[in-house]
Amino acid sequence: MTSGSASTVSTTTHSALAPYGWDEAWAAEFAPYAAEGLLPGRVLRVDRGQCDVLTAEGVLRADTAFVTPHDPMRVVCTGDWAVVEPGGNPRYVRTYLPRRTAFVRSTSSKRSEGQILAANVDHAIVAVSLAVELDLGRVERFLALAWESGAQPVVVLTKADLVPDPVTLAHLVEDVETTAPGVPVLTVSALDGDGLDVLTATVADGTAVLLGQSGAGKSTLANALVGEDVMDVKAARDVDGKGRHTTTTRNLLALPGGGVLIDTPGLRGVGLFDAESGVGQVFAEIEDLARDCRFQDCAHSGEPGCAVLAAIDDGALPQRRLDSYRKLIRENQRIVAKTDARVRAEIRKDWKRRGAEGKAAMEAKRGRWT
Q1: Quick one: how far is CA 244 from the chain centroid?
Q2: Which of 129, 131, 236, 277 is exposed most, by the fewest CB atoms within 10 A?
Q3: pLDDT value, residue 170
Q4: Would you say 227 and 254 are in contact if contact means Cβ atoms under 8 Å apart?
Q5: Are strands 58-63 and 50-55 parallel, antiparallel or unpaired?
Q6: pLDDT of residue 360
Q7: What kind and span of H or E run contains 53?
Q8: Amino acid 40: pLDDT
Q9: pLDDT mean for each 10 residues of the chain (370 residues)
């Protein structure tokens, strides 16, 4: 390939892929593969070992068999920048470029495995329906995974038209803002378009992934952002606000106002997967308080000089927040301990220490009674 033709290919590639997030940094990562005549492309969707990849030649169907098929963390995922063979039937994805960010949850199995839901994401939109009672614990769980991914979370309260009272709506927003420190909280009604302009501006730069439970209004929101009915929509049940999985695969869609959107199926299970720093960011106020505890390894469960418990006593910290923090920390430790012997040893050591402290306390009480 001559330098002139290489320049033409580079210009054509940039023109075709720039609306999907291609930039000079990706081009530099791809340079060694370009020298081999391979094609770059953004993965639009993956289905049963095949994927649709947008390249300068258009959308290609490619086989992913060459890319470690049995490791759920290394399979090709929607949002990846794939390295595709220029010809052949079928075409194959040789590999993908190193991911900048990755949204990962634990699998529903009892094994310690992660499932990657979306790659190279800049904004993680957590859709929460106002048609049902807010589940703040689930919001915290989604946000922990979002922060851990490296993306900027955004909480979108959907179906805001179902809460006509502005005072009630303001209280709901305040509850979520307390649950999501440092995270924008937007109210949107896809039905009448209220709030869509703010969300459109938020996701216009980069790649956004749309997350939430079935019935949260994700497909309706995706259609509103894209400006046409690209996703199938089914009504949620009146009894609990839950819907059927109208989206069955993860799809990457170009937005008319700029940026791209990855829509995902509704998630019933949102298990943590090595998300310690993400949990810390969701509960930043608790971790800030913990720095003032008397003991560095304070568990906030009755130790003297505990700043976290003091904040609960004076009303500055809700008990629900501490309970949720403890729950997610324990869950994350269990996941990590399945694959990390050092963490397992530390957890056993902590159990023994707490057991010894409990035994000593009981013996002291018996001594006072006799």
Answers
A1: 21
A2: 277
A3: 95
A4: no
A5: antiparallel
A6: 58
A7: strand 50-55
A8: 96
A9: 49 86 93 93 91 93 82 84 90 93 68 76 94 91 88 94 93 94 92 90 92 83 81 45 50 91 71 70 92 90 91 94 90 67 48 52 53
**What is 297-310 written as a DSSP string?**
T--SSS-TT-HHHH
The pLDDT of residue 346 is 52
What the block records as the tokens of 351 is 């159990």
| Residue that the structure tokens 């400006």 belong to | 227
Contact 218, 264 (CB under 8 A): yes
- Identify the helix (H) or strand (E) that includes residue 140: helix 136-149
Report which of 222, 236, 242 is spatially closest to residue 135, judged by C-alpha positions.
242
The CATH H-level (homologous superfamily) assignment of domain 102-263 is P-loop containing nucleotide triphosphate hydrolases (3.40.50.300)
| Per-residue tokens: 293 | 């505890």
Are the beta carbons of 144 and 279 closer than 8 angstroms? yes
pLDDT at 79: 95
Q: What is the DSSP string of 258-280?
A: SSEEEE----S--B--S-HHHHH
Contacts (Cβ under 8 Å, ≥6 apart) of 157: 128, 129, 130, 172, 173, 176, 185, 186, 187, 188
CATH of domain 276-369: 1.10.40.50
In sequence order, the 6+-apart residues with CB closer than 8 A to the CB of 180 are 139, 140, 143, 153, 155, 282
User: Coil, helix or strand for 159?
Assistant: coil
In angstroms, rounded to a whole number, what is the distance separating the alpha carbons of residues 24 and 160?
40
Query: For the residues of 176-230, what is the DSSP string, one character each?
Result: HHHHSTT--EEE--TTT-TTHHHHHHHHSSSEEEEE--TTSSHHHHHHHHHTS--
CATH class of residue range 3-96:
mainly beta
Question: Which two tokens mark 141?
Answer: 């769980």
Name the DSSP letter for residue 23.
-
Domain spans in the chain, listed from the N-terminal domain onward? 3-96, 102-263, 276-369
Same fold, 3-96 and 276-369: no
